[in-house]
Design brief:
This protein is mainly α and 251 residues long. It has helices spanning 3-20, 25-33, 39-63, 69-89, 95-121, 128-149, 154-163, 168-190, 198-221, 224-247.
């Protein structure tokens, strides 16, 4: 595997992961489509690669007081329950079913991000009922994505935070904080059965750490208006990429 390409992919995805609070499913997509790993090995490897970005991004965001710990801890308990539940399903899935589940989750995640982007651009106000029940539900789905499919589950968490009227930067930062714990729990629950491709993981993690360190610094340099514009452009783009990765096995 080309070391330079691994580092570059890690850097770009690590930057996106911290900048937008989602996009870690791109790791799985890259490892499957570019580096030709199996779905199960790609999911396990992506879970490990994600950790450096989440830890570095959270430490930097903590120093800038961007994380909403009150809301984060509320959503964290639901996400942890979802992670445990997702891990319990894993023994009952074979290779084909596992691939199908990952593809379905990628498609649903892409659709969620697209819908969130469209509704946010129209500045729709969430109903009180939706704002009350969707964030915990989104957190559970996020945890299931970690425990079952090895994804970081950032998309549902960010969507849930935005429904609570959190700013984009705060939603992304709080999502990173929550996913440190769900990812650690996911790795701990599956460590004895995880098939990790350590060679690509090492070099991609190196790029991931660099990208994650650059993202908060870049967010401080650009103005709020430019940040919102980049966020509006990147979200649909990520959704389209995830949608392609989800439907590719069926083409």
């Amino acid at each position: 595997m080309h070391i330079g390409l691994l580092i570059l992919c890690g850097f770009l995805i690590g930057f996106i992961l911290i900048f937008l609070g989602m996009g870690a499913a791109l790791y799985i997509g890259c490892l499957i489509t570019i580096f030709h790993l199996s779905a199960k090995m790609a999911a396990a490897s992506a879970l490990v690669v994600t950790l450096p970005a989440l830890i570095i991004g959270t430490l930097i965001n903590h120093r800038t007081h961007t994380i909403d710990y009150h809301c984060g801890n509320f959503l964290l308990k639901w996400a942890l329950l979802g992670t445990i539940g997702g891990s319990l399903i894993v023994p009952f899935t074979n290779h084909d079913l596992y691939q199908l589940i990952i593809s379905v989750i990628l498609i649903i995640l892409a659709s969620t991000i697209l819908w969130n982007s469209i509704s946010h651009s129209r500045k729709k106000k969430s109903s009180k009922l939706t704002a009350k029940y969707f964030p915990p539900f989104a957190s559970i789905i996020s945890g299931v994505m970690v425990g079952l499919a090895g994804m970081s589950g950032g998309g549902p968490l960010v969507a849930g935070m935005l429904l609570l009227d959190a700013p984009v930067a705060q939603a992304a930062a709080t999502s990173s904080y929550i996913r440190i714990w769900t990812t650690l729990l996911g790795v701990g629950l599956h460590w004895h059965t995880m098939m990790i491709a350590w060679h690509p993981v090492f070099f991609m993690a190196l790029g991931t750490a660099l990208g994650a360190a650059c993202a908060p610094l870049m967010m401080r340099l650009i103005g709020q208006r430019n940040r919102n514009f980049i966020s509006r452009v990147m979200k649909p783009l990520i959704a389209i990429i995830l949608l392609y990765m989800g439907i590719k096995p069926f083409i």
